[in-house]
Amino acid sequence: MNTVREEIITTHDLNDLHAEHLELSMGPQHPATHGVLQIKLRLDGERVIHADPIVGYLHRGKEKHAEHCTYQQFFPLTDRLDYLQPLANEVGFALTVETLAGIDVPLRAQAIRTLICELMRLSAHLIWVGIGGLDIGATSVYFYAFRERESLFDILDKLTGLRTNQEYIRLGGVGADLDAEVIRELRQWIADFPKRIDEFEMLLSGNRIFYERMKGIGRITAQQAIDLGVTGPCLRATGVGVDLRRARPYLLYSELDFEIPVGTEGDAYDRYLVRVEELRQSTRIAEQLLKDLPSGDFIAAELKDVLPPKGRVYTSMEEMIHQFKIVTEWCPPPGEVYQATEAANGELGYYLVSTGGRSAYKLKIRAPSFVNLQSLKPMIEGGYFSDVVASIASLHFIMGETDR
Amino acid sequence: MSRSVIPPSEGGGFLPKYGAAVATPMVKRRQLNRNERWFFVPFAKALLYTFTRMFKRKITRQYPEQKLEAGASFHGLPVLVEKDDGSPRCVACGLCEFVCPPRAIDIVPGEIDNEIERAPKEFVIDMLRCIECSYCEEVCPEEAIVMSKDYELVGRKREDFVWDLPKLLRTQESLRDRLEFVRKTYRRWDENAEIAPPPSGVFRDPAWAGRERPNEGH
């Protein structure tokens, strides 16, 4: 009489046993998925043969919200898109509405915005260096990256009043002027920062564990990246040098001197190298801007679009009426506009349709993380299960932005 | 390394064609050298780096003992400014209630018996909803609501966080920093604007001073 074991072997031959795949659900509470991403994996032993990223766990209906609140009220919601670089999101939205309404932003306000965009890129990439390293297993660099980010936020706190989700950008300019003390502290921070980048590189680039866990992992070709619509560092790592700061310059980028780092192989290690090089380039941009910040107003002097100065509001009926009108009834002319900016993760675009009302008729947010996430599938399919985390870490999508 | 050159995008063109777009510097991609392959030297270097951090300036703030020092630009919880007689400056115009993005403010206007005629009967801010964006402060035409320096918010039940008038009112003296900051910041592009606080009478326009009010008798 056959034992149970023998029975199994006789009823299923060895190939059939091998063909039984394991369905594994990774996330949405997995610490390495950077938020609430769920990936349905089908595993053949250690190999990933099928991956299915499932998004939507953090959906808050921001695009719908835009149809119900005034333009100024939407700014705090853009902060919470990519919460690692709140002000860059605000700048993108402000540029969109200003393009539609035809508001001229003074030079100083533009310079402050450019500076802030670069500081936000630094802060977002610092998180990448920290969390990305942590995902691979390099624990200590995480603390050093967060230390730098914390000291940057201390300065931003002085400027905007809040550490994160600052609500600093206004239509027509920014909320408060950059004062001498903040400029001095920023210069100091920027001057120290290249040394810190060297330290991060010393801790990561030459580390054999980090190197071998990143090299050749999550490789996509330039053609695949273009087909999927990948933008930002993930696209540039594949060798395509497209950066909206150069391709369609906005703010003051056309006048600044910086380079666009481009990778060669499009694997996780290249994405790391591109981001580290972008840290250096952003530092350069910030240095140039801080060297001679143009003087002038930090907000446009347009009585019909921008809140009037308080001194006049207190004393004159005309300005008092403007104050009420602008807050409650400000509307851009009817029209459509698409404005894209280069956020830390790629092309952050706002497509705005206005029918002349005080809130948008329709707002579509082209979130870079959402599009970049589509490249996860070709990256991890066919690879080992343990490399999934490295691919996720190197893509660095933000779920707040993906799900909106 | 060469500078990247992108042709200026013409009117209709959206992005320069991918691939042919730019000549840009490649990031340096290297092989591990012998030391690094052996792993010990970078490991020791990193360990040494971590070790020396022990003797550097500590940047961790020991929070409950060591409080954050908030400057004038800090956005704490919004509070109401009171006049010298202890009544709120607020005239219940409802502008902050309108602009508040999370709709944390709730005002019930009422009439009072002096020349201002309006004052809030109830003024409630739900501090759990408040995101400290300072929009209320920016739009207030009376300098009546400002951001305080309070950032600690503790309570035992939800009702503790819904602040009403007695909890919200603060003296001008205690908010001096912020009031000065507000006057400086929101003066903005107008060089000739007065920075003085709003006069507490209702008729600011000198042309109306001492005259009858326009809507009297209706």
Characterization of the model:
The complex is a heterodimer of chains A (404) and B (218). By secondary structure, chain A is mainly alpha-helical. Chain A has a single domain (62-403), classed as Orthogonal Bundle (Cytochrome-c3 Hydrogenase, chain B). Chain A contains 19 helices and eight strands. Chain A has helices at residues 4-11, 14-19, 62-65, 71-79, 86-101, 107-136, 139-160, 180-204, 208-214, 222-228, 233-236, 244-247, 268-291, 310-315, 317-329, 368-373, 376-380, 388-395, 399-403, and strands at 22-26, 38-44, 47-54, 169-170, 173-174, 335-343, 346-354, 362-366. Chain A has a three-stranded antiparallel beta sheet with strand order 1-2-3. A three-stranded antiparallel beta sheet of chain A has the order 6-7-8. In chain A, strand 6 (335-343) and strand 7 (346-354) form a beta hairpin. In chain A, helix 6 (107-136) packs antiparallel against helix 13 and helix 13 (268-291) packs parallel to helix 18. Chain A starts with a helix and ends with a helix. The model of chain A has no long low-confidence stretch (mean pLDDT 85). With 218 residues, chain B is an alpha+beta fold. Chain B has a domain at 78-187: Alpha-Beta Plaits. Helix content of chain B is 20%, strand content 12%. Chain B is built from six helices and six strands. In chain B, strands 4-1-6 form a three-stranded mixed beta sheet. Chain B has a three-stranded antiparallel beta sheet with strand order 2-3-5. Chain B is elongated and about 85 Å long. The interface between A and B is large, with 75 and 69 residues.
